[in-house]
Amino acid sequence: LGAPGCGKGTQAEFLASSLGVPAISTGAMLRDAVALGSALGSKVEGIMASGGLVDDGLMAEVVRERLGRPDASGGFLLDGYPRTTGQAATLDSILEERQEKLDAVVLLEVPETVLVERAVARKRADDREEVVRERLRVYREKTEPLVEHYERRNLLRRVDGNRTMREVTAASLKMLGRQA
Ligand code: AMP
Q1: 119 vs 134: CA distance, rounded Å
Q2: d(Cα 90, Cα 92) in Å, to the nearest integer?
Q3: Distance between CA 54 and CA 168 in Å, rounded?
Q4: What Å distances lie between residue 114 and 11, 120, 150, 158, 169, CA to CA?
């Protein structure tokens, strides 16, 4: 979990490779669908460009299909999912069906001023400043409630994301009880 620009995507890759599981990024999957011009891509393109969230039902299909692939059978790290309380409930039911459980939720914490600077420097299609601000607003409104949700379940691991990439990876692994 973390606001747009917090470094989730980068850290997900590093952590997943240290942990020997695939990093499953819903944002990257959707961007690929847009680039391919698939049916999914055309459904989500406008929503993504405006900084909004793709609806929970569609995301449930995307995630369920992805987790059904063989590489996810021995565990996985999700990047960018769940993003709403509805998605958290969907994830719970997917995990229950698979007789798996969530081990931990890493929250990367980065001050808002740094988030905007980083996101604008990144120059992705949805990284124009107005869109970045909208994505931050959506994060606060829809996704931030998950922090308390997972805190109550004792799954939340807070990591200071305002450090070098290496430091953030090492701190995250430590929080997960692993060595860097
Ligand atoms: P990200 O790369 O995680 O920042 O995602 C980029 C964009 O993809 C978001 O701003 C949303 O429009 C869309 N997206 C990615 N993951 C989700 C999700 N779990 N639920 C809804 N929309 C998503």
Answers
A1: 12
A2: 5
A3: 29
A4: 17, 10, 25, 17, 18
Ligand 1 proximity of 22 Cβ (cutoff 6 Å): no
* Cα dihedral 44, 42, 95, 18 sign: negative
To test ligand 1's pocket by mutation, which of 29, 34, 40, 54 has the most ligand atoms within 8 angstroms of CB? 54
Number of helical H runs and strand E runs in the chain: 9, 4
Query: pLDDT of 82-135, one tens digit each?
Result: 999 999 999 999 999 999 999 999 999 999 899 888 877 887 878 888 898 999
Determine the distance separating the centroid of ligand 1 and the alpha carbon of 113, expressed in angstroms. Answer: 21
Percentage of residues in the chain having pLDDT higher than 70: 99
Greatest Cα-to-Cα distance within the chain, rounded to the nearest angstrom: 42
**Catalytic residue annotation:** 8, 83, 122, 124, 135
- Which carries the bigger pLDDT value, residue 132 or residue 32? 32
Q: Is 80 in the pocket of ligand 1 (CB under 6 A)?
A: yes
